[in-house]
Design goal:
The protein has 215 residues and is of the alpha+beta class. The protein has five helices and eight strands. The protein has a single domain, classed as 2-Layer Sandwich (Heat Shock Protein 90). A six-stranded antiparallel β-sheet has the order 3-4-5-6-8-7. The longest helix has 21 residues.
Length: 215
C-alpha cells in the first residue's frame, strides 16, 4: 500500500496517508492524579495533567455528554475563546459518537478512550476503541471519506457537497459521514487514523490554536 502525499494547509508540508501514519510513542501519556490543579473535579474515570486530559468511558450514548462537559471544563481553564471551545467540544463528541457506533464492545471490559492534548501550536483530540474483523467495511469508508475531505482545499466545499449527498439519501441511512466533514470544517481540524498493534482503532483530529485565544 503506497503513501499518498497530502498537503497540510497549516505548514505546507506533505503528510502520509491515514493508514501509514503512527503517532509518537508516549503521545497519550498524562501525569498522575497528584499533579491535578486543586479546582479540578474530574469524572471518576478521568485523569488530567496540566495540558492533557484522559478519559475511559463505556459505550453508552449518555457518556457523550460526559465527554462534552469534561472537555468544556478542561479547555475553559486555558482562556480559549468560546467559539474555539465549542468547536473542539463538537470534535470530541463526534469522534466519541462514531467510536461508540462502530467499536467492538462485545465484552464488558472493552471501553473507549478519549484523549485531549494541548500542544504549543495545536490541540489533538483522540478517540481509541476496540475493533474487529467485521469492521473492515467501516475502515474502508473512513479512509475514503478522510481522503475525500483532504481533496478539497477548503473543507467548507466538502461540507456543502456532503450536505447535498445526504439530502439525496434515504432517511434510514445512518452512515452519512457528515460528522467527519463537520470536524474538518467547523472544527477546522485535520483528521487521521491508524490501527494499533492490539487492533484498536485510533482516530485523531488536529486543530491549530494560533487564533484560539482571541475572545
Amino acid at each position: 500500500m503506497g503513501v499518498y502525499p497530502i498537503s497540510d494547509q497549516r505548514d505546507g508540508k506533505e503528510r502520509p496517508s491515514c493508514r501509514e501514519r503512527k503517532l509518537p510513542r508516549g503521545s497519550g501519556k498524562v501525569d498522575g492524579p497528584g499533579n491535578r490543579t486543586p479546582q479540578e473535579k474530574p469524572h471518576p474515570d478521568a485523569t488530567a495533567s496540566r495540558k492533557s486530559m484522559d478519559m475511559t468511558v463505556g459505550p453508552e450514548w449518555e457518556h457523550i455528554e460526559i465527554v462534552r462537559r469534561r472537555t468544556r471544563l478542561f479547555l475553559n481553564k486555558y482562556g480559549f475563546s468560546r467559539e474555539f471551545i465549542d468547536a473542539i467540544t463538537m470534535v470530541g463528541s463526534e469522534l466519541v459518537e462514531n467510536g461508540i457506533k462502530y467499536g467492538d464492545f462485545g465484552e464488558p471490559e472493552k471501553k473507549l478512550k478519549f484523549k485531549l492534548h494541548i500542544l504549543e501550536k495545536n490541540i489533538i483530540v483522540e478517540v481509541i476503541h476496540p475493533t474487529s474483523a467485521s469492521a473492515t467495511r467501516h475502515l474502508r469508508r473512513l479512509d475514503k471519506t478522510i481522503q475525500w475531505i483532504r481533496g478539497y482545499q477548503d473543507p467548507f466545499q466538502a461540507y456543502v457537497e456532503k450536505l447535498k449527498e445526504v439530502a439525496r439519501r434515504p432517511i434510514t441511512d445512518s452512515e452519512s459521514g457528515l460528522g467527519l466533514v463537520r470536524i474538518a470544517h467547523e472544527g477546522k481540524s485535520i483528521l487521521d487514523f491508524f490501527i494499533a498493534e492490539d487492533n484498536a482503532l485510533n482516530v485523531s483530529a488536529v486543530a491549530g490554536i494560533e487564533k484560539a485565544l482571541w475572545r
